[in-house]
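User: Structure with adenosine-5'-triphosphate, tokens only please.
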Amino acid sequence: MSDCILEMRDVFFEYSGGIRALDGISMAIEKGKKIAVLGPNGSGKSTLFLHFNGILKPKSGKVFYRGREIRYFRSFLMDLRKNVGVVFQDPDTQLFAGSVFQEVSFGPMNLGLPAAEVEKRVKEALKATGIEELMHRPTHFLSFGQKKRVSISDVLAMNPEVLILDEPAAYLDPGHEQKLLEILDELCRKGKQVILSTHDVELAYAWADYVYIMKAGKIAAEGIPAEIFQNDKLLADTDLRKPLLLEICDILKQKGFFFNKMPRSIPEFKDELLFRATDE
Amino acid sequence: MLIDNYAYLNKLKDVHPAEKLLFALATMAVGFIPNALLNLAIVLMMGTVLVFKAGIPARIFLKMLLIPFSFIIIGMLTMMVNVIPAGSNALIKLSLPDFNVGITLESMKMSGLLFSRSMAMVSCLYFLAFTTPVMDIVAVLRSMKVPVLLLELMELIYRFLFVLMETSEKIYISQASRLGYINAKTSVHSLGRLASSLLVKSWRDSESLYISLEARGYDGELRVLTRSFPISQRNIFFIVLAEFLLLILAWLFRG
Ligand SMILES: Nc1ncnc2c1ncn2[C@@H]1O[C@H](COP(=O)(O)OP(=O)(O)OP(=O)(O)O)[C@@H](O)[C@H]1O
Ligand SMILES: [Mg+2]
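Assistant:
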């Protein structure tokens, strides 16, 4: 259990009005794994994420960060939020400042860093999401995808231990989605923990080391993508779809094709084909 | 919100906001000298700076000047036409049973002054509005030790003004595209729905904004890093020079 970065034990949560959003969740997120959370609309992904940095407090059950139980008093939460950063699903509810530069500086300023360091981090974060040239623009001038990128920079600039992103790829163009995934991979290599939610099965299949599937406030399944996405019944139950690449590989397999290692991306797929070609 | 767009994109956007604030305020102060010619000069000066230095199209500036024009004209007329005591020499006089109404040379002068001064002040404010984003002005005020609470309110109100506008626009478009405004009856209905959903939505938005601020370590004060601008000695020199010339003008044509 010591290698768990975040853990939930039997967490229940209800919104006012008695809507049960989390219905007995237990999960243990292993350190260093790239995590994707999937599930149909309203299955509780966003609600789950808000529990990881103590924004929402479970009705019952416990949440742990690095083996320490999250306590809901101010100083503890402040400390927790320095370590666990959340990028919200809707950027419009996250952006408040006049200009992009000011917006992104908010988090690092709250960390009490000196101005020069804040400026450096802001610039790095804007560069990472490719919006440096928007630095002095007001946030209300931006397109939705650009706002989304600002909201990601917001949290990148704080350089947290754990980065939680609620549907980061939604609204991004394919180029910037690719770039975002590269940034996230880079962060993982540096030893940061990345957790994201998505509706994009291709993305989850290619990127994640471990996936959780939610349904109606419960964890319907968890496991490595190669296994989870082979479970046709599960996919049908949770309104998901099999990744195209996996589908193709399955067909090839039925035709007698043998894969050394199931490819998770097109380049890997190509490698496998070449491997076969040189083999024979 | 046309002006706001120019504030971010004009050619003077990288000039230190304190310099622009100084220019506008100093010119306004000079403009209080009662001298119509001086006021005219101020309007011309601001117009020239806006068009040639800031790159604002002259057409836009003139159009914006026209907006307060009508208000000022009304104010001017009410000032010009007065009850005048019997026996004074008026330019135009209308005799009513109990008293006389008319325009005297004095009231003519007064209203002329009011008009020119108003236009001068308005063009100073336009200079500021066209060249300086609100956030930059707030930053200057912050360095002048204006209470933080006031400044944060300004910032948030400014931001939410746009959020509110955008939201209402979106709701309007979505209603209109479903024929919500096809006739008077549906229009009233739709407008009512727009207003009520705007209220609910703003409420929820402010709630979720608070949540997201908390997630980034908000502790009651919105600390952000403001961009630093270089101070230009040259600009300050020109500002002082311009004000000085205006004062000389006022002195030459005193009277
Ligand atoms: N602020 C709220 N007040 C009341 N109920 C809410 C609130 N936010 C979410 N819910 C409800 O809680 C449940 C879980 O919502 P949540 O936002 O966590 O879903 P999600 O998995 O993130 O969905 P999506 O894929 O659409 O983002 C839903 O039934 C939703 O209607
Ligand atoms: Mg969600």
